[in-house]
Amino acid sequence: MQFLPLNPIVESHQQINGMELPTAAPILYLISFILLAVPLLIFYIDHRSRQRQKAAGVEISIPPPTKIIEIRVYPIKSCRGFKVKRAKLLKTGLDLDRQWMFVDAGSMDFLTIRQISKMTLIDTVLRENDELEVSIRNSQPKVQFAIPAHPSKQWLDENTELSEVEIWKKKVDGYIYPKELTAPFSKFFEKEVRLAYKGPTPRILGGNGAPEVLGRTESTKFADLAPLQIANQKSIEELNSRLSQIGHEPISIERFRPNIVIEGETPWYEDTWKTIKIGEQGKSTTLDVVARCARCQVPNVDPDTAVKDKKQP
């Protein structure tokens, strides 16, 4: 089968000393060759330069070390968390972080601050006896319950029911606490809710953290996308400077619900990170940065009042 060109070249000719020569075609061929050859040449030079740097032991410039200034844990998804001085870093994230979530008792779908802003008025506290206390702020009479922060398999078998819950349209397993425990919270939500604790089956990361992209299989509990979220204090300061210019009150970094807050070198330089190393030389852990946190409505909710701004930040 023969295909005709969409834009055939029409040559013009001129007579020189009795010879007929094409005038347009050589010029077009030369331009095409240059357009093709120049990018290839640049790529080749850059590739050779990188090879020489690698052979000479030249490392790509990395930013100077920075300090961790806060560590935060949010035991129940979309509810208030608390600061800690130290935390155990598990493969699935910080110990206790997003290991529980409230679900609709009918659909077993997860509930989030995105639609129910007053979830930020649900407080969590870790007691000295390793119990997690959950309460509704300013509730009269006081609405609260306490559960083991690190429940054993035996305790879960005796006090909960292993079932399926849904998060971001995917089914995962979860230990469901009895409805008597969360009955007062159902009144707060204005519908029947249940509390779920992540079950034993790994919840495999998707998106940039998916096995076919990351190169290995990783999982998390009930966090949206990845086991750990890191924020830069310099970035929130820059954001507040812009908010002040439009007459908006400064906001706290808590609105973004990060696990780790760093002091930072410059605003937003975390957007370029590929990996991070936490700890001192010889005692450090290297983590892959799989994504920048997607923009959503959560930061628009004032964590102290549950009032949601329609536009900012």
Describe what you observe in this structure.
Mean pLDDT is 87; it is low at 1-22. The radius of gyration is 29 Å and the shape is elongated. A hairpin with a 4-residue loop joins strand 8 and strand 9 (131-136). It is an alpha+beta fold. The longest helix is centred in the N-terminal third of the chain and has 32 residues, at 24-55. The protein has one domain (68-300). The protein has a 4-stranded mixed β-sheet with strand order 4-3-17-16. Strands 7-13-12-11 form a 4-stranded antiparallel β-sheet. It has 5 helices and 19 strands.
Tell me the layout of helices and strands.
Blueprint: E1 13-16, E2 19-22, H1 24-55, E3 68-73, E4 82-84, E5 89-90, E6 93-94, E7 100-104, E8 122-126, E9 131-136, E10 144-148, H2 153-159, E11 161-167, E12 170-176, H3 179-189, E13 193-198, E14 203-204, H4 211-214, E15 219-220, E16 230-232, H5 233-245, E17 260-262, E18 275-280, E19 283-288
Parallel strand pairs: 16-17
Antiparallel strand pairs: 1-2, 3-4, 3-17, 5-6, 7-13, 8-9, 9-10, 11-12, 12-13, 14-15, 18-19
Task: Briefly summarize what is shown.
With 313 residues, the protein is an alpha+beta fold. The protein is built from 5 helices and 19 strands.
